[in-house]
Amino acid sequence: MDIKDMLNLVKSGEMEIQEAEQLLKDLPYEDLGYAKLDHHRALRSGFGETVFCQGKPDPYLVEIYRKFYERDGEVLGTRASEEQFELVKSVVPEVQYDSISRILKVEQPEKERKGCVAVCTGGTADIPVAEEAAQTAEYFGCHVDRIYDVGVAGIHRLLSQRDRIRNANCIIAVAGMEGALGTVIAGLADCPVIAVPTSVGYGASFHGLSALLTMLNSCANGISVVNIDNGYGAGYLATQINRLAVK
Amino acid sequence: MDIKDMLNLVKSGEMEIQEAEQLLKDLPYEDLGYAKLDHHRALRSGFGETVFCQGKPDPYLVEIYRKFYERDGEVLGTRASEEQFELVKSVVPEVQYDSISRILKVEQPEKERKGCVAVCTGGTADIPVAEEAAQTAEYFGCHVDRIYDVGVAGIHRLLSQRDRIRNANCIIAVAGMEGALGTVIAGLADCPVIAVPTSVGYGASFHGLSALLTMLNSCANGISVVNIDNGYGAGYLATQINRLAVK
Amino acid sequence: MDIKDMLNLVKSGEMEIQEAEQLLKDLPYEDLGYAKLDHHRALRSGFGETVFCQGKPDPYLVEIYRKFYERDGEVLGTRASEEQFELVKSVVPEVQYDSISRILKVEQPEKERKGCVAVCTGGTADIPVAEEAAQTAEYFGCHVDRIYDVGVAGIHRLLSQRDRIRNANCIIAVAGMEGALGTVIAGLADCPVIAVPTSVGYGASFHGLSALLTMLNSCANGISVVNIDNGYGAGYLATQINRLAVK
Amino acid sequence: MDIKDMLNLVKSGEMEIQEAEQLLKDLPYEDLGYAKLDHHRALRSGFGETVFCQGKPDPYLVEIYRKFYERDGEVLGTRASEEQFELVKSVVPEVQYDSISRILKVEQPEKERKGCVAVCTGGTADIPVAEEAAQTAEYFGCHVDRIYDVGVAGIHRLLSQRDRIRNANCIIAVAGMEGALGTVIAGLADCPVIAVPTSVGYGASFHGLSALLTMLNSCANGISVVNIDNGYGAGYLATQINRLAVK
Amino acid sequence: MDIKDMLNLVKSGEMEIQEAEQLLKDLPYEDLGYAKLDHHRALRSGFGETVFCQGKPDPYLVEIYRKFYERDGEVLGTRASEEQFELVKSVVPEVQYDSISRILKVEQPEKERKGCVAVCTGGTADIPVAEEAAQTAEYFGCHVDRIYDVGVAGIHRLLSQRDRIRNANCIIAVAGMEGALGTVIAGLADCPVIAVPTSVGYGASFHGLSALLTMLNSCANGISVVNIDNGYGAGYLATQINRLAVK
Amino acid sequence: MDIKDMLNLVKSGEMEIQEAEQLLKDLPYEDLGYAKLDHHRALRSGFGETVFCQGKPDPYLVEIYRKFYERDGEVLGTRASEEQFELVKSVVPEVQYDSISRILKVEQPEKERKGCVAVCTGGTADIPVAEEAAQTAEYFGCHVDRIYDVGVAGIHRLLSQRDRIRNANCIIAVAGMEGALGTVIAGLADCPVIAVPTSVGYGASFHGLSALLTMLNSCANGISVVNIDNGYGAGYLATQINRLAVK
Amino acid sequence: MDIKDMLNLVKSGEMEIQEAEQLLKDLPYEDLGYAKLDHHRALRSGFGETVFCQGKPDPYLVEIYRKFYERDGEVLGTRASEEQFELVKSVVPEVQYDSISRILKVEQPEKERKGCVAVCTGGTADIPVAEEAAQTAEYFGCHVDRIYDVGVAGIHRLLSQRDRIRNANCIIAVAGMEGALGTVIAGLADCPVIAVPTSVGYGASFHGLSALLTMLNSCANGISVVNIDNGYGAGYLATQINRLAVK
Amino acid sequence: MDIKDMLNLVKSGEMEIQEAEQLLKDLPYEDLGYAKLDHHRALRSGFGETVFCQGKPDPYLVEIYRKFYERDGEVLGTRASEEQFELVKSVVPEVQYDSISRILKVEQPEKERKGCVAVCTGGTADIPVAEEAAQTAEYFGCHVDRIYDVGVAGIHRLLSQRDRIRNANCIIAVAGMEGALGTVIAGLADCPVIAVPTSVGYGASFHGLSALLTMLNSCANGISVVNIDNGYGAGYLATQINRLAVK
């Protein structure tokens, strides 16, 4: 933190007190009234701010994409709809949309990628959440190994992928219904496992509650959990862990 | 059903109408006022009635054990405490108590056992429930193969027992916390799997709710669920299935 | 298990080590990337793999039906929509759809059926789930006896069907709202009862939770429970039990 | 209501305004500070106020019993402990305690009883709640017919009691675990059924929640529900209904 | 019960055994396969069977209305949609529909009504459920007094209706959100109060759960509860109570 | 209270008893049958009655707006839809609609505003609820300071607004998902904080339950909670507090 | 905030930069390692910090009381046990304990009290929570009017206290079971009502959940809710509101 | 994986087929019947197996400690009671017990520690869980920085520790009640944050559910959650992450 620098400037008279006061207040974000954009995030954490598109009123969304794109040349958004894609494209023509993951982004070409994050799913229906995680990790600079449809009801499918699983710095286990995938993986691997419950299922899955509880009660070591369907959160956290490993 | 026989007797005058009426009412049980003992159960289903000891007032409990013992020469009770054992023993000295399974019984010697039921647990703490299941199945005439502490967080422990698992006519999978054991077993075996969630765990296990939901949402085929900690119910049902197989 | 055979081949030099390694990995399934088809299931368990249609993206669904149909000549799918039927039919013209059970299948003609499974419902609204169960059991080779609208609020309707109930090797009890049907049936019969809670109801039925809890807490012996609305799971399990009985 | 009378007295000058004001405020109860005793209840509703003993601090409890006893010559309390019995007895020696129902009361001898309320239980463990209901109804002047241990898992026990069930003006159905008793009874009888869920059970009974939901979702007509273990409430309501019938 | 009569006929040879057997089975209902119509209900309980329209497949619904109408000349159905009204009208032109209560019925003209049931609501939004209750009670022969929008947040509105409330043999209290109406009414009246929670509300009302719990926990005496939005159940039960009072 | 005055009039004969009785009953509201309008509310509490538009049948809604507008010249409604706006406008052309807050009102011009209420949100998606609160407080005569998108995940945004927060007489903290905003604000300010959980979020937010529980468990002092999404309730209560402060 | 002052001192050289840095860090609390005591609280908010005794390890508790007492001459603690009282008394002999409210405090004599807070309870069992609220408000300088046992099941008890209720600047409504007290009070008064659900009750009260939901769903205006049994929180908040009123 | 090596030995005849089969089965653990000890864990993952003491029967517990101690010279156990400590000490005299964290261990002296994990708590009552986490991380070779009692209700306490927070490779945030600590920390730091909800609290904290939901719904990036009170799991996972960082 450079409060010390600023205080030195104040002491030496190079900076006015009013100016210092102002700086302390306004430095961290750009205020649009309805939103406060955190352009300093990238400096502070090495990650730019991400846009959660779902439910954002149209004019706000477009403005936010434009602002980020103008300043950073790239922008990542999640949970976007087809309609939001069309809307943003009219202002930021470079924007790209993936209808499986629902990611809406502009990404700078030829980013360097380092280290490896594995993304596994229990079934085919968990792929949208897995792709949100995988594409987030790729956007922030990870290699991603996708290992899909390896649920524990047919354990041989998972066991045959052991080598790929053990090759990663961090594993994301995406599963709905019973959600036991993360535990078995954590028992096979020795790196951190991030479990993502999905709302896939019916009846007593209670929209993901079942998978969530399973994962929280995992008997395995080295596993933690994010919110139901929160592929983005898992991809972000996996990137942080992967960066520590490749640093 | 022998209603027809009885009607024939009525028609032929061999049985009085009042007597027939009485029979239809009184046949099925012995009425102690506070309890109605179903001595015909054994005829009807091939299983004697079982005593759920927990919460039974002392005089009732003792009387019920005495009645069953006198008529059948054997009696099975579950969820008994050490104190209840002492109490019943003073009236039925042959009664035996197992402090792990909490089963309190008199069992006729040298029963024949047929077919095989496997009883598996995820961990050591699930053993009391597993023993309630195993001893129930043995009491009703099954061979039982105990396969304990094979939870899915260390999948190799379970995989090395595949042959024993595949050898059974029915498998009981007992597990708390995340409760994923049943699914993996059902994926390995081709006989019915009865999943028993246990209240083992803490925090978000919510006294067995987590394991219960996991089991209900199992992605595997051929699996069904009984109440939390209901080892007796699983042992009874496994016996029914085993009898069908060895019949 | 034929690992021993394979090891013998390796020892005798008839099989290369690399080949053995490959076999151990690739044997169990065909990998489509987004899905791993388990063609060996039928060998292992006597049941082909079933397709859970709901939520499957269109191109995946069509491809999966085509693959299974080509290899096995028949395929069973559940929870299909009218639209999915039209879609699959364009590629597999032999496919048939039942709008009550939502089953989408190709079935080989003149299958032999053995043994009997009874399927009961509490009310008329439970019939779709019951039909999913009944048609699954029929597909896998059982005779099915349908006993519908015999809920316990008018107990005489159920009692008059006692003979049919006692004639089955396994009974499926399908009920929503209060869900007490399974208990009364299990008290009348001496074979296993599979209880299926349905989401039929309103208010405090909480989408099937009420019926689910009722069934889990059944005072009867010989009863187990599957997920809310899980007719398929009940039909599958009933078939396993029926096969043990007629074997 | 006699506000009109009072207003007449005010108009005629027979009552002072201040006095009228006071009356309107103080008429309905005796204020002990920590409690407001409603001595007018008996006039208004035909029932004296009942004491819920559980959790009442000792000095309050004793004082309340003394006050009621002095004024009315009798008093009914529920959920009393053995200790509270001893305590109250030291001040009101006539008080009587029943350790099953936990009712602590002084009752005037040779009360007249009219009409009939039937009290049924699913099992033996439900008897304490049933007795709270039965003794409450008796205290307030009903005949009570006790029909215990007639749970639906052995439906013949209940069916053989049909005549007694149909003889009542109101039926109280007390059951824990799955709680289906009320529905079957309501299907057999044509008078109001009050269902009382009990906390008897374990695991997924969730301390009575399962039985409560079952009862609320009953498919039968003519059934309503009170709180878990609320035998008193059921006994009171049954008395109201019985009084309407015998009036 | 006339089993005795039948047995006498059997004994005297006036009835064949087979015929008696058949009678015992077929007497109670007409079997349509998908539904079992209980035409004897009216004899047994004094109430004809009611049709729960919601979710009934169209051909079933029409057939059931036709059958009941042909035999009884009247029929009562609940939770019907506008579309179902049009459908049934094409076969039973006399049928009438009320879009507030969603009741679809044919009712015989100039029915006699006896006794009084009061139906109260907390707010205007509770009226549809209240009307289902009120019209059910009227159909079965009660006078109904409607007292709407008297929620406890403005207690003077309720207090000014005290006389009407005290005039009824049974009171139905319909309320959503906090659901306290029933308690206050039960404190003012001395007849049975049936509380109906409604799903009116938002947020932490959890679709009627809040009102349901409030009512179950009522501190008042003489109150019981039916399922959320179950106006029909309340109307039926109120009629039973009212009949006892006017009998 | 002026009961005394009225009693004096009765005593002196200036008021007839019947008239007094009538007054006591009819004074408080105007009865439309389906609704009881509380015109005296403004006198009693200083606030006119507000219309909760959601779910009100069209003719009722229009009539209620017309009645209030005619008598008071202004009217406030919440949770109105675009369609309801059009409907009411056809009868009360002065009515105005805000699509963000969904407030539908006629407001008298140039109202005086006193004191200050601060309304804060965690994110942009919480603004609709915040605006319902803010516009309610403004309607009832408060100045409102809007401080939006200051969620605790970027604590510097909130800290930089400390002065504005400390300037208010009451603060409304609106937040979904984790809902921690209120606690941090209450730690910074020394006036009452009203926390409003919103249904913004997904997965384990359970439609606002998560935020609600967070707020109820706040470790801070001086904070209380209203229902999920209840901006109106917060705005009303804040006004009451603000009035006490500026009085 | 005096950051400006400090910056002025830094500019003028009267304060060293290091010193300023240190101040910004250490100013707000005294660090005991296991606890950080906020002595500045009183300055900032006008309230000293309160000790939540429950669960505090003995040596920590004693030390914390000693520290606060030494610096401030008074200290307020809640949820203390008899044992903790004895323990603290051995070090701070002036400490006083009230076994009903479980408050453990040293209070300076002859504090001035201003304004009035009313504390109401539904029943006698709610008094401990009410006393925690009342004594907290008194400690912080309010007059408190206690109005106990005025639950809505006997509405006349509450109505007769209308004048006392309307005399307060803020009302605390404490109730368990159904929890409707707050709504009725808020309808009678025009000042803020703080509703405190209590865990008093049984069965479906779910340890206070029922009362909590009732209060959150209140139809009345001007009401907010604190955590179950949180008398302290209500007392604190009421004091803040009362201070605004008497300021 | 060394299956290849083993297959080579089989091919060359150096290993018998039976021996290979045996190896594949028995390699991974030592079977005590009631437990399967995973001595290979340390090789596989770099962590020895840990003993969850709570609920382990005495003879099992002692035996397990002895086995591990004999083979590895050290052993870590969690959730041990004072009694279990005495018991194990009688067999393994070197064992040490910490009554705050409830950790029971033998640890080899002078272990090297690398990298830094920060452990923060919201309050003093969260320290036992925090210590379980901290001592686990230390046992597995991390430096730990303890930052206790920095809950968000007094945000300045946390902000003043910013430098220590930013110095860690991984942060564990332990908090009960509202549980917002993790979010604020994740907003300040740029390394992974593991949130541990604790069961500290009362009322609507529902034994940690409130804090759990808060953490799962965190608006911050880079945060994941473990089970309620699962300090061990957090300490283990933090160690994995820290090892990746210092590797």
Automatic annotation (TrEMBL), chains A, B, C, D, E, F, G, H:
BP terms from Gene Ontology: 'de novo' IMP biosynthetic process
Annotated signal sequence range: none
Pfam hit, one: AIRC
UniProt GO molecular function: hydrolase activity
InterPro entries in the cross-refs: P2CMN_synthase_LarB, PurE_dom
Record SMART domains: AIRC
Domain of life: Bacteria
Domain named PurE: residues: 115-247
Protein name listed in UniProt: 1-(5-phosphoribosyl)-5-amino-4-imidazole-carboxylate carboxylase
Organism in which the protein naturally occurs: Lacrimispora celerecrescens
Phylogenetic placement of the source organism: Bacteria, Bacillati, Bacillota, Clostridia, Lachnospirales
